[in-house]
Amino acid sequence: MALLLRSIARPGLYVSRSQFGVLYRHAVPMGTTAKEEMNKFWAKNTRLNRPMSPHITIYSWSIPMMMSITHRGTGVGLSGGISLFAVAALVLPGNYPYYLDLIHSLSFGPQFLAFSKFALAFPVTYHTCNGIRHLMWDTGKGFKIPEVYRSGYVVMALSVLSSIGLACL
Amino acid sequence: MASFVRLSSVCHRGVKPLFARNTFLARELFACRTFREKDSMQVQVHASSHSAASSKAASLHWTGERLLSVLLLGMVPAAYMYPGPVVDYTVAAALTLHGHWGIGQILTDYVHGETKIKLANAGLYTLSMVTFAGLCYFNYKDVGICKAIAMLWRI
């Protein structure tokens, strides 16, 4: 209906350019960008003070959903860690070997060290492996649901195994 | 958002409407008839690279993000095989930019409202600049990223 009204209101914009290809012979570009449309959506809904529709609180969680948000979570965590490290490098008085010796002098047990290495390595390996999965999607491959689940399992297995491998080094 | 559906794909196809409500049928028929009559029924589309007014900035940004990700992936074996200042500074740059663009996407997803967006992005720029400065300082004055990871792992 909105489609109809919009087309009637814009008689002068009818164009049949071959650039659009046969499919879009009667297509007319919208006057707004996607970004503007999205901003309009949010502006209207905030203005009307509408509550957020329940989504993650009611929708059944699936493996792809969990892996996706974990990818984002590990990304934020890693980024935060790197920034923290960079600020520490600028602000703290001593140099890196000094702080390493400090940790070394605390004499943690070998299991604790191995576990810490695993805990450090896992976000990196998970984000890397899932990142490769994302890049495969970007080439257009692997979107069928069974494929999504299969690649997801592969990523989870590879992350855990490589983290264990790195922790043993 | 305007619909991308071409009316011709649903008209004249003998498609039985799922709902036998009169209003729905009437609207469908009206729309189909208009399509045929006017022959100028316009379908609103988001014309991407075809419109003269649109810019390719977003598309290029997307490609840049993927290229950077691949570069970062290549840095992993590079850091292992050739640790040193070249890899150190490349990793510092690639890591900071990848994180900057990544967090940028998160802000775009969750932050709404003109001023909030501006503030968030300003904060992000500051964070990324400080991060890059810190990493470069570490590479210059201290042991460097590759050596640091190696030393940490030998603890």
UniProtKB/TrEMBL annotation, chain A:
CC terms in the record's Gene Ontology section: membrane; mitochondrion
Domain of life assignment: Eukaryota
InterPro entries per the UniProt record, alphabetical: SQR/QFR_C/D (IPR034804), Succ_DH_cyt_bsu_CS (IPR018495), Succ_DH_cytb556 (IPR014314), SuccDH_FuR_B_TM-su (IPR000701)
Cellular localization per UniProt: Membrane
SUPFAM superfamilies listed in its UniProt record: Fumarate reductase respiratory complex transmembrane subunits (SSF81343)
Membrane topology designation: Multi-pass membrane protein
Transmembrane segments annotated in the record for this chain: 75-96, 108-127
BP-aspect Gene Ontology terms: mitochondrial electron transport, succinate to ubiquinone; tricarboxylic acid cycle
Pfam hit, one: Sdh_cyt
Major localization class: membrane
UniProt keywords, alphabetically: Heme, Iron, Membrane, Metal-binding, Transmembrane, Transmembrane helix
Example of a GO MF term: electron transfer activity
Pathway the protein takes part in: Carbohydrate metabolism; tricarboxylic acid cycle
Cited NCBIfam families: succ_dehyd_cytB
Subunit description: Component of complex II composed of four subunits: the flavoprotein (FP) SDHA, iron-sulfur protein (IP) SDHB, and a cytochrome b560 composed of SDHC and SDHD.
Function summary: Membrane-anchoring subunit of succinate dehydrogenase (SDH) that is involved in complex II of the mitochondrial electron transport chain and is responsible for transferring electrons from succinate to ubiquinone (coenzyme Q). SDH also oxidizes malate to the non-canonical enol form of oxaloacetate, enol-oxaloacetate. Enol-oxaloacetate, which is a potent inhibitor of the succinate dehydrogenase activity, is further isomerized into keto-oxaloacetate.
PANTHER family listed in its UniProt record: SUCCINATE DEHYDROGENASE CYTOCHROME B560 SUBUNIT, SUCCINATE DEHYDROGENASE CYTOCHROME B560 SUBUNIT, MITOCHONDRIAL
Protein name in UniProt: Succinate dehydrogenase cytochrome b560 subunit, mitochondrial
Organism: Alosa alosa
Automatic annotation (TrEMBL), chain B:
Binding site for a ubiquinone: Y110
InterPro entries: CybS, SQR/QFR_C/D
Residues spanning the signal sequence: none
Main location as per UniProt: mitochondrion
Residues at which heme b binds: H98
Record localization: Mitochondrion inner membrane
Keywords carried by this UniProt record: Electron transport, Heme, Iron, Membrane, Metal-binding, Mitochondrion, Mitochondrion inner membrane, Transit peptide, Transmembrane, Transmembrane helix, Transport, Tricarboxylic acid cycle
Pathway(s) served: Carbohydrate metabolism; tricarboxylic acid cycle
Any GO BP annotation: mitochondrial electron transport, succinate to ubiquinone
Coiled coil: none
Topology relative to the membrane: Multi-pass membrane protein
Transmembrane helix listed as a keyword: yes
Single GO MF descriptor: ubiquinone binding
Domain of life: Eukaryota
PANTHER family linked to this entry: SUCCINATE DEHYDROGENASE, SUCCINATE DEHYDROGENASE [UBIQUINONE] CYTOCHROME B SMALL SUBUNIT, MITOCHONDRIAL
Assembly description: Component of complex II composed of four subunits: the flavoprotein (FP) SDHA, iron-sulfur protein (IP) SDHB, and a cytochrome b560 composed of SDHC and SDHD.
Family to which the UniProt record says this protein belongs: Belongs to the CybS family.
Role played: Membrane-anchoring subunit of succinate dehydrogenase (SDH) that is involved in complex II of the mitochondrial electron transport chain and is responsible for transferring electrons from succinate to ubiquinone (coenzyme Q). SDH also oxidizes malate to the non-canonical enol form of oxaloacetate, enol-oxaloacetate. Enol-oxaloacetate, which is a potent inhibitor of the succinate dehydrogenase activity, is further isomerized into keto-oxaloacetate.
Name of the featured protein: Succinate dehydrogenase [ubiquinone] cytochrome b small subunit
